[in-house]
């Protein structure tokens, strides 16, 4: 893809998440528009969506109001093994949901940085951080392909259903490698393609913004990560995720083409 085409995709994704940021105002919204569910007629709560993705009731009750917008396809917290004092970077942090969960795990000596390219998401996250006195959390406006983070600065990178949205995934993994310290690790939840999407779905830019058309195969992602320099690469598909994926756009039977996966690796 050309840079012009890449920018068109980013702009569409940005507009989609701007609308979500402005529309979702609380955690108990009854008809949550998930990352991959543009259908506003679903009668499903954000909490229900999050539990299907692997978050616990305990985690969900300690999140600032409006931070959890049901945007994701898994729970990177479950595989990150965060430790006190670590610096964590969340790629595509949205309203700050996973950042706020990571905050108490790394403690006062740790630090959590969220990066998102949608100004409205950054504003929402910063307001929640200030209102709820998260002293070790900050949010930066930027693209995951061009991270506003210094070299070898972070211990752990987490991300939840965001890398599929990038039109330049090679650049994302190169940037992730750059900002990680030696021995730093990736802990990512994302969708992967299990069989080729029909051409009409691949060409649908709205489905790209909905975490569908931008999905890649496991082999392709593993190759990109290897080329970036990562070791101990593991990409594990979660067949149980088909239970919520089939709700994203039922008319397309997406569960036949994509599945959520956990992605881990070490620098």
UniProtKB/TrEMBL annotation:
Residues 83-229 form the Methyltransferase domain. One of its GO terms (molecular function) is arsenite methyltransferase activity. It catalyses: arsenic triglutathione + [thioredoxin]-dithiol + S-adenosyl-L-methionine + 2 H2O = methylarsonous acid + [thioredoxin]-disulfide + 3 glutathione + S-adenosyl-L-homocysteine + H(+); arsenic triglutathione + 3 [thioredoxin]-dithiol + 3 S-adenosyl-L-methionine = trimethylarsine + 3 [thioredoxin]-disulfide + 3 glutathione + 3 S-adenosyl-L-homocysteine + 3 H(+); arsenic triglutathione + 2 [thioredoxin]-dithiol + 2 S-adenosyl-L-methionine + H2O = dimethylarsinous acid + 2 [thioredoxin]-disulfide + 3 glutathione + 2 S-adenosyl-L-homocysteine + 2 H(+). GO terms for biological process: methylation. Belongs to the methyltransferase superfamily. Arsenite methyltransferase family. The keyword Methyltransferase applies. The lineage of its organism: Bacteria, Bacillati, Bacillota, Bacilli, Bacillales. Its EC number is 2.1.1.137. It holds the Pfam family Methyltransf_31. This is Arsenite methyltransferase. Keywords: Methyltransferase, S-adenosyl-L-methionine, Transferase. It comes from the Bacteria.
């Amino acid at each position: 893809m050309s840079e012009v085409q890449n920018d068109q995709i980013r702009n569409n994704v940005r507009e989609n998440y701007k609308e979500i940021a402005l529309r979702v105002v609380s955690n108990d919204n009854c008809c949550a528009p998930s990352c991959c569910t543009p259908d506003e007629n679903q009668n499903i709560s954000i909490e229900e969506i999050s539990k299907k993705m692997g978050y616990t009731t305990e985690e969900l009750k300690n999140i600032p109001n409006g931070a959890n917008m049901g945007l994701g396809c898994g729970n990177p917290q479950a595989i990150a093994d965060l430790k006190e004092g670590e610096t964590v970077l969340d790629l595509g942090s949205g309203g700050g949901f996973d950042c706020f969960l990571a905050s108490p795990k790394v403690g006062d000596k740790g630090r959590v940085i969220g990066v998102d390219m949608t100004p409205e998401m950054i504003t929402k996250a910063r307001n929640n951080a200030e209102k709820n006195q998260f002293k070790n959390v900050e949010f930066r406006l930027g693209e995951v392909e061009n991270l506003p983070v210094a070299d070898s600065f972070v211990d752990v990178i987490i991300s939840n259903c965001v890398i599929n949205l990038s039109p330049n995934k090679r650049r994302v993994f190169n940037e992730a490698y750059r900002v990680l310290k030696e021995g730093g690790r990736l802990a990512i939840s994302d969708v992967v393609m299990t069989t080729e999407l029909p051409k009409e779905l691949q060409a649908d830019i709205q489905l790209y913004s909905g975490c569908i058309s931008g999905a890649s195969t496991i082999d392709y992602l593993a190759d990109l990560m290897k080329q970036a320099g990562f070791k101990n690469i593991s990409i594990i598909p979660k067949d149980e995720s088909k239970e919520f994926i089939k709700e994203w756009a039922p008319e397309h039977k997406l569960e036949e083409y994509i599945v959520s996966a956990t992605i881990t690796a070490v620098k």
